[in-house]
Design goal:
Blueprint: E1 2-4, E2 17-21, H1 29-45, E3 48-55, H2 58-62, H3 74-84, E4 88-93, H4 96-99, H5 103-114, E5 119-122, E6 127-128, E7 134-135, H6 136-146, E8 149-152, E9 157-158, E10 161-162, H7 165-173, H8 177-184, E11 188-195, H9 200-203, E12 209-213, E13 222-230, E14 233-242, E15 256-261, E16 272-282, H10 290-314
Parallel strand pairs: 1-4, 2-3, 2-5, 3-4, 5-8
Antiparallel strand pairs: 6-7, 9-10, 11-12, 11-16, 12-15, 13-14, 13-16, 14-15
Helix pairs in contact: 5-6, 7-8
């Protein structure tokens, strides 16, 4: 997949670009349905499946205090788009100058004159341009003027509710990682580097890897059944997100992300790791003493093992499964 970060890098003769445009945070089931349609149309037209997106998120420029925490980092988003079969991604830098561009100017000067789109498909509630003044109807009108096809993909729903990035964020912030997994079609994942922690896990013979992540959105504090991936291999795990109230001697400025891998004992310090969240076990809480904490952790590990045994009765898990692979048969 080719990724361009400046419109000036666009080739002069891009073969029949068939595109979509949006922020696509999370690449949830609705986005995936749009991408499948895009790929089908690209194959029919012998064209280039193209995604146009923005970085940073427009609200991070226009109203930073109201900007939603992003579900994915840009590298995660690009990796997901590549896995879906997209051939070209144009990441347009979003700034105040672009924010002042009218919807018509954006469609004509960028989508038509620079990219020469043949077809473009968008999702429900699509809007673009200055103050989001541009609608699907306007884009379709411009397409008829210039000679490119404009289409809209219907909403994707899960249990009667529209699948959206907002719904995924709400699920994660409330700790409903199993619901987020359903909306995303895969487990929600954090990525980062393993850093030194307080070494409490080692002292109680339950070693943990402490993840330092660039992801903006972290699930609600608590204990989760999880999967960690390091060096391309996936391992069953239990993860705690929180402030470690039983063992912390002072208020920590931000929650820690500590993961205990089941049946896996290697020094992970300094290595890159992906951490997927499968299901929530419990809230984080303070225990009267260290012994009570250890007993609860062992219960958490036992519950996680039972969960994985049940899961494997439906679909065997192997260490070589790629991170982000679905955990249930479709």
């Amino acid at each position: 997949m080719k990724v361009l970060f400046r419109l000036e890098e666009l080739p002069h003769h891009l073969p029949c670009p068939v595109a979509t445009i949006g922020n696509f945070d999370g690449i949830h089931l609705g986005h995936q349905e749009l991408m499948r349609h895009l790929l089908d149309r690209s194959r029919a037209a012998d064209g280039t499946p193209t995604v146009v997106t923005f970085n940073p998120h427009p609200l991070q420029v226009l109203a930073p205090n109201n900007a939603p925490r992003q579900i994915q980092t840009l590298p995660q988003k690009l990796s997901m788009l590549e896995s879906l079969g997209i051939e070209l991604v144009v990441v347009i830098p979003f700034n105040l100058s672009l924010a002042q561009t009218s919807a018509r100017d954006f469609a004509v000067r960028i989508l038509w004159e620079k990219m020469r789109l043949r077809e473009i498909y968008v999702g429900p509630n699509f809007a673009f341009g200055h103050r989001r003044e541009g609608s699907f109807s306007l884009l379709k009108e411009i397409g008829e003027e210039k000679g490119f096809i404009v289409g809209k993909i219907p909403q994707v729903q899960f249990r009667g509710t529209r699948v959206s990035s907002t719904a995924v964020r709400q699920a994660l912030l409330s700790g409903q990682v199993a619901l987020a997994r359903r909306l995303l079609g895969r487990p929600f994942a954090l990525e980062g580097v393993v850093v030194h922690g307080a070494a409490t896990g080692g002292s109680i013979r339950i070693p943990t890897a402490n993840l330092q992540t660039l992801n903006e959105l972290v699930p609600r504090k608590g204990v989760y059944v999880s999967m960690l991936t390091v060096d391309g291999r996936r391992h069953k795990a239990v993860t705690n997100i929180g402030f470690r109230p039983t063992v912390s001697r002072e208020n920590e400025p931000s929650p820690t992300i500590e993961t205990h891998a089941l049946d896996f004992d290697q020094d992970l310090y300094g290595r890159e790791m992906s951490l997927e969240f499968i299901v929530r076990l419990r809230d984080e809480r303070r225990f009267p003493d260290l012994g009570s904490l250890v007993a609860q952790i062992r219960q958490d590990i036992s519950r996680a093992r039972r969960y994985f045994r049940k899961l494997e009765s439906v679909m065997p898990l192997t260490p070589d499964q790629p991170a982000g692979a679905p955990l249930e048969k479709s």
